[in-house]
Amino acid sequence: xxxxxxxxxxxxxxxxxxxxxxxxxxxxxxxxxxxxxxxxxxxxxxxxxxxxxxxxxxxxxxxxxxxxxxxxxxxxxxxxxxxxxxxxxxxxxxxxxxxxxxxxxxxxxxxxxxxxxxxxxxxxxx
Length: 126
Fold this sequence. Notes:
Blueprint: E1 8-13, H1 16-26, E2 30-37, E3 42-49, E4 52-58, E5 77-80, H2 84-93, E6 102-103, E7 110-115, E8 121-125
Parallel strand pairs: 1-4, 5-8
Antiparallel strand pairs: 2-3, 3-4, 6-7, 7-8
Protein name: Glyoxylase I family protein
GO molecular function: metal ion binding
Domain VOC: 5-126
């Protein structure tokens, strides 16, 4: 087996319009495809993230995440940015609260956390 990269990350949104606005307008991700699947009463939005994608889904009555961020399963999604300080400033200017910046004790890189509309923990890393 020769795994080369992550193809996509799938996220289920409780409020599709709100999450679509967040990922496209706040984070600036490009829409690749958007489809409504009537048989599932569900939207599927494919967003470009470098060489990978985020699949944003809507489903009627999705269950809530049990706890955060220490629930079993995906802990958080981390984005690499070229200009860390500018990215934080941009998020803050768009009304997204970021945690205080921390330094990774192993790599020395700076990082911070913020949340999407469903409180999914997201991270920025320089």
